[in-house]
Amino acid sequence: MEFNLQRTDENARAGVLKLAHGEVPTPIFMPVGTQASVKALDFSDLLALNAPIILANTYHLYLRPNDEVIRELGGLHAFSKFPRNFLTDSGGFQAFSLNSNVKLYEDGIVFKSHIDGSSHFFSPQKVLDIQYNLNSDIMMILDDLVGLPASKERIRDSIARTTKWAKSAIDYHNYKKQSAANSGKILTNNIFAIVQGGTDKEFRESSAKNLTSLGDFDGYAIGGLAVGEPNEEMYATLDFTTPLLPKDKPRYLMGVGTPRDIIEGIARGVDMFDCVMPTRNARNGTIFTHFGKLAIKSPRFKLDTQPLDSKCSCYTCQNHSRAYLHHLFRAGEISYFRLASIHNLAFYLDLVREAREAILEGEFARFYKDSIESMSP
Length: 377
Prior knowledge:
By secondary structure, this protein is α/β, with parallel strands linked by helices. It is about 45% helix and about 20% strand. It has helices at about 45-50, 60-65, 65-70, 75-80, 90-95, 125-135, 150-180, 200-210, 230-240, 260-265, 275-285, 315-320, 320-330, 335-360, 365-375; strands at about 1-10, 10-20, 20-25, 30, 55, 85-90, 100-105, 110, 120, 140, 190-195, 220, 250-255, 270-275, 285-290, 290-295. The strands form 4 sheets. An 8-stranded parallel beta sheet has the order 4-14-13-12-11-10-6-5. Strands 1-2-3 form a 3-stranded antiparallel beta sheet. Strands 7-8-9 form a 3-stranded antiparallel beta sheet.
């Protein structure tokens, strides 16, 4: 993996991430394809959207159809027919979101399947083995995610556990790379560490220093945000966390978020984002546009012949009206999910492309101001 930082504009960064399945211009938004599929879309839709990388879920693919099955079928790329890059998460978020079915131990996580109740164990090494089978381009290490608010003792434990697991993960990954090299092969999977620490400056600094001292991770993620804290606290946490991370490595803000969150993250030096919001909100009738959000079920769109967004050139906006999308949603037509998801993802991908262009032109301050104003109610 290579990460070339092309230009900075204040703290905002534009770069290119070179992976085994193509280049990823940054900043970038990664559509979420939990089951190796972005809901309601297929790989041709994603190629039409020019998405260079999508996210898949380690926990879910381990349970169904199972990582060994995907390995036998050629890995995620051959299995899904999406030829570009995959990032896979570690299962740490599922341990957080399914906490009633999870037990934390010093060497990993025991959880019960949400499908059949069977028990499973994830260690730092096991999580990587699953992702090697998936053959993802970027693999996330196992971390201990904490919801907010949380006690200082719980956050301190989270940092200690995350650091311990990170050490196990980087050692194991280096061993796998050396084993591949000894066999005349090159391991193209890359590994990202995850900084924890809640919204506490001291904890974030401790976590970042612990992880950057362990070894040469390919990138660094900021986890444990957008889990209950106010937005302003999240932005303040990014203000003091991103400068703690290496300038020559990509920075990934996990599971965030709204269009404004993404602009605020880019302004603070974040390179990569993912969130279910564009596709989930699309299915629920919320459309993102350059002029604010639309509730497409509203009766005011019944006779509206305009596209969803006059500034958007996606397939949906080029071919269908608000009135038609309104009708499809109200009628419960399955085609609505695809058309609305295409548009919302196009909006998010256009947003980061426009931000990138502004950074390269030294105009990010203007872009930031215009974007925030357009998103305000």
